[in-house]
Amino acid sequence: MAVMNIREAIASTLYSEMERDENIIVLGEDVVGGNGTAGGPEAIGGIWGTTPGLWAKFGPDRVIDTPISESAIIGAAAGAALCGKRPVAELMFADFVGVSLDQLWNQMAKFRYMFGGKTKCPAVVRLIYGAGMQTAAQHSQSVYAMLTAIPGLKVVLPTTPADAKGLLTEALRGDDPVMFFEHKTLYGVKGEVPDGEYRQPFGQARVVREGGDVTVVACGRMVSFSEKAADKLAADGVGVDLLDLRTTSPMDEDAIIESVEQTGRLVIVDESPPRCSLAADIAAMVTERAFTSIKAPPAMVTGPHSPIPFSRTLERAWVPSPQKIEDAVRRVLGFR
Amino acid sequence: MAVMNIREAIASTLYSEMERDENIIVLGEDVVGGNGTAGGPEAIGGIWGTTPGLWAKFGPDRVIDTPISESAIIGAAAGAALCGKRPVAELMFADFVGVSLDQLWNQMAKFRYMFGGKTKCPAVVRLIYGAGMQTAAQHSQSVYAMLTAIPGLKVVLPTTPADAKGLLTEALRGDDPVMFFEHKTLYGVKGEVPDGEYRQPFGQARVVREGGDVTVVACGRMVSFSEKAADKLAADGVGVDLLDLRTTSPMDEDAIIESVEQTGRLVIVDESPPRCSLAADIAAMVTERAFTSIKAPPAMVTGPHSPIPFSRTLERAWVPSPQKIEDAVRRVLGFR
Amino acid sequence: MQLNRDELLQAYRQMATIRTFEERLHDEIKTGEIAGFTHLYAGQEAVAVGICEQLTHADKIVSTHRGHGHCIAKGCDVKGMMKEIYGRAGGLCKGRGGSMHIADLDVGMLGANGIVGGGAPQAVGAAIALRLEGKGSVGIAFSGDGACNQGTTFEAMNLASVTKVPAIFVFENNHYSEHTGDAYAVGTDKDIASRAEAFGIKSWRANGCDFFDVFSVFGELLEYVRAGNGPAAIELDTERFYGHFEGDPQRYRGKGELDRIRDERDCLKAFRARVTEGALLADADLDAIDAEVAQLIEEAVAEARADAMPDNDTVADDVYVNYY
Amino acid sequence: MQLNRDELLQAYRQMATIRTFEERLHDEIKTGEIAGFTHLYAGQEAVAVGICEQLTHADKIVSTHRGHGHCIAKGCDVKGMMKEIYGRAGGLCKGRGGSMHIADLDVGMLGANGIVGGGAPQAVGAAIALRLEGKGSVGIAFSGDGACNQGTTFEAMNLASVTKVPAIFVFENNHYSEHTGDAYAVGTDKDIASRAEAFGIKSWRANGCDFFDVFSVFGELLEYVRAGNGPAAIELDTERFYGHFEGDPQRYRGKGELDRIRDERDCLKAFRARVTEGALLADADLDAIDAEVAQLIEEAVAEARADAMPDNDTVADDVYVNYY
Ligand SMILES: Cc1ncc(C[n+]2csc(CCOP(=O)(O)OP(=O)(O)O)c2C)c(N)n1
Ligand SMILES: Cc1ncc(C[n+]2csc(CCOP(=O)(O)OP(=O)(O)O)c2C)c(N)n1
Ligand SMILES: [Mg+2]
Ligand SMILES: [Mg+2]
């Protein structure tokens, strides 16, 4: 097993999968970089460093820099996927779903259903998301709830290098459109990554730790925040079952229910505003499926009903913190 | 009080409000109709018949036909609103949020917050939505959950002519961006409409009926479906508290909680797919706020996790039906 | 441009099939059996057929809300289409799509589209894919004079221009987007093709009511694109014989306009005149095709009516290839 | 074009303020005190100032992610801006917006924008509003050579063309969108302005590193638009002196490119040479302004550093004017 960070896990998986399958193509803004400049192609790759060397190895017909036109990027990916390719399209920031939603929602996601099940659209869209770098209201959002709500899309959020490899491989081998969310603060997270072919099936939550007193469900950056909270709680003798969802569509409802049936108490941590959120989705699902098991109302730790502010202190106040998670756990434990 | 249908209530409110306030302007595709044709402007107004006579009365600078470019429509509304106008922009189908989301979500909704509270953006966006006319997967969706989730927007869904007038007037007098949803199957619904100035404040649910045994919360077309279910249940001696939300952002949480505290049982009817839906939002909120009062898990009656099909029978199978609502009520009543 | 007898017969058959299909729908819709939005292609047949007759199944097209003509011209099964529009289980898309969402990938028809402008980027994606195949196949986006104003259409042209892929933008200018004239909504001093040219895309123009003109001009364009010269565009001046959708009172039309375009701009009449005058085909040849087509459409309607409605249990099928 | 002494001094002061503001930020960012994305406008000052000096507060502009220059040129308070970029409570937007979201409606600055292409439709909306006022005011969208490819920009141009409102599209071509050259990403045989012309929009071109050229060409354009002739566009050939954002290693630049543009394309140097050679102003006049500006920026940084961070309790304030 090699040790690498999430950025490297994504870059190397893209590279090796493209070597394996000539139908995989990559497109996005500056995924090559340097086109049309004195420095030439790959003078600088994408700003996230996840696509280096692809152009040199696989050439300009498979690794395509696009103008700033996200609808065209996603639409082209959709069209290429209908024609038997496996495009990997990059949205440099997940917030750019705003300028490309139609192609995700009304096109890519619906083709197979509308066309009577005769088509498939195996496109992977990589979306870089999340707060924590003071990128302010239009570059910090966690758009996964909006896309989880859309029938026809799968939604994936790796939090470890191994999962980044396993889930991306799975996305590239599957036949449905996959929204692959990469949290901008997690790129540097290091860990062991299995060598060779490695797939992580969707719809299987990762049990981060077992504690038995309370269930905490999280995804993305909120997993590590929940671990911090769990550490503090463990010091006080409170044992947390922590689940990293890995994928929100499909979602591992059974793993959540199983844990809640034992603990009777649930905290959901969701880096997004509260309304019609993933937190609400899970709270409602658990209440429906495990009503007689829950001893307290599921607690939802989310941001407030506001955009994400720029200022360092305000941004921190906006994002769910380990402290708020800890408080929520204590609240549900104390509920009578 | 005059008797009119919802279409007429909207058309006459637009007209009289434009007479009152010269800052109100209207823009959208074919809101005039006939521009650039032999028939000339207003040969045919919009396909919904909600803007007749505006062009003739208020002129081409206030009533503007646009090319097919929804991002430009919403963006122009946002810009005009920042400059002191009160634009009313029409999205001929709410599904076209797909091609205009950025201007709604990252622009209009966020200006005031991002700019430190010094600006206001009093734009009204009219969105024609909903299933029931076999308009298939891209022309039938109920997009209110997606917009309810967005901090900065208000979301309004009238179901009676009186509310259409009252809520539209309120939208046009307020200072925040309002998403005004008009269900395409409800335009013909008739009712009494108060004469003269009439405002319906946001965030106040309408008590459609009181029954005491179970709470049913609905919006849009689902209100009348719920009434049908309630009629059948009443015949069996089951009394339904039926709430029409009127607005989902802000939402009248208190009215819901108050009823649930009495009935202990809740059914939410939501014409949309289930994930991260308004139904889940309400179920989670009620579980959180009224955990000790609820005697059964809140039931969510939604469409399935699929796009909306074209075929008459399939579309009916997709949309929550009076029968399914009735079944859900019986289920929550039978829960032990 | 040299079309042999069989090719001429086939072209006429295709145009006649579209016309008859659409005119029949126009009547059937009045019975109330067909709901939703049905946008008829009648009047524009020369465009779809003049173009698609030069394509193979390896070439891909992306269509619009007014897609029946493109579907038939590209080779979709006519009976399957009729069933689809009737919302039947045996429809080309199992009744789930309806008039605005007919697709058949086997013949290179990637889909009609209810979102105006939705298809253009997809055609560029198809062209990206087809360039990799290296066989000279092309990706084609049909767009109207309304759709040419949607941001996606411009983005698609720019992306095609930059990537130099074999994408073709076909602009069917029938002079109306719903109830608005192109004279109003298309911002330009010149025409739609000139806007494509501004992207560095070589553009052609043709009479969209004249099969032979479409065929020859598009033929030249196609040769250019198949040769690897990058994208191209063509604007076709054409006519819509019916309303925007069925039920449209068409008060935006000029006095006598409908009569005039039926008289002077009917591509089927023009085709017949040309081939009979030139003694390429006889009236009887065409009449025979008319009869066959009438029979086909008659059967299509009868079979559609007789077909079962989809099973309610299938309502949430086929959302994914596999979900769990 | 006749600029009097005061006007020349003012123009220089504005350009020098932008330059000093940006160069100081370039240094401050290295200290780690300023996070998020900061896109510096240095090099392009002649554009913002050459345009905004001809506007009043009644004219509205919509800016980009690279907005500091437009803000200063339009009259935003420099100290308030600095505090904003430092994320302080006293910032122009209370620290909530940051570098990419500075606005001040009182001076007609409708907002910087983190979404490339987001502003263009809003400028058309402003122009719709301003036409109603009937005072000849204009709505201006600043866009880059990258933003000119976004669908919204095209839609905005078409809408302006169709509605004939007083909207102005200013295309600042600094030849890069992030790390990609305009030679690659702008699909055209000609230039960005020619694409605007294809929409029937009268277009101009100017040297964006020469204040006097910008001023006079834009002056002509402005007269045209104020007179009610409808929208207009201008493309400015300009240079970005720093990386796309701070931290960009700029390996896409040619050998010696940064030196060359600093040498040959510096609008401040050119301005100084022109006004001193022409004896319109003396070096000492300009030096005095440089000193004042240096002082202002020094104070701005000191005050920003000293200002309080926003109160955590305000995190969800001002989402609505009133919610319940
Ligand atoms: C994004 C979007 N906006 C608006 C519509 C509504 N609509 C359907 S067809 C149409 C007019 C299209 O005009 P054109 O492109 O010229 O095609 P034609 O109808 O003439 O074939 C409009 C506005 C839509 N379906 N999608
Ligand atoms: C919709 C959108 N796509 C992509 C980006 C990322 N991005 C920010 S600036 C930029 C380049 C913009 O280039 P240009 O318009 O030329 O402006 P410049 O940076 O040269 O001032 C890109 C791609 C964005 N912010 N918004
Ligand atoms: Mg048309
Ligand atoms: Mg640039």
TrEMBL record, chains A, B:
Family annotation (Gene3D superfamilies): 3.40.50.920, 3.40.50.970
SMART domains: Transket_pyr
Pfam family, any one: Transket_pyr
Protein name, UniProt field: Alpha-ketoacid dehydrogenase subunit beta
SUPFAM superfamilies tied to this protein: Thiamin diphosphate-binding fold (THDP-binding) (SSF52518), TK C-terminal domain-like (SSF52922)
Top-rank lineage group of the source organism: Bacteria
InterPro entries: THDP-binding, Transketo_C/PFOR_II, Transketolase-like_Pyr-bd, Transketolase_C
GO molecular function: oxidoreductase activity
Keywords tagged on the record: Oxidoreductase
Domain Transketolase-like pyrimidine-binding stretches: 4-189
UniProtKB/TrEMBL annotation, chains C, D:
Zinc among keywords: no
Domain annotation Dehydrogenase E1 component: ranges: 13-310
Keyword Hydrolase tagged: no
GO molecular function: pyruvate dehydrogenase (acetyl-transferring) activity
Matches recorded under Pfam families: E1_dh
Annotated GO biological process: pyruvate decarboxylation to acetyl-CoA
Alphabetic keyword roster: Oxidoreductase, Thiamine pyrophosphate
Catalytic activity reported: N(6)-[(R)-lipoyl]-L-lysyl-[protein] + pyruvate + H(+) = N(6)-[(R)-S(8)-acetyldihydrolipoyl]-L-lysyl-[protein] + CO2
Cofactor(s) the record lists: thiamine diphosphate
Source superkingdom: Bacteria
Task performed by this protein: The pyruvate dehydrogenase complex catalyzes the overall conversion of pyruvate to acetyl-CoA and CO(2). It contains multiple copies of three enzymatic components: pyruvate dehydrogenase (E1), dihydrolipoamide acetyltransferase (E2) and lipoamide dehydrogenase (E3).
Name this protein carries in UniProt: Thiamine pyrophosphate-dependent dehydrogenase E1 component subunit alpha
The organism of origin for this protein: Croceicoccus ponticola
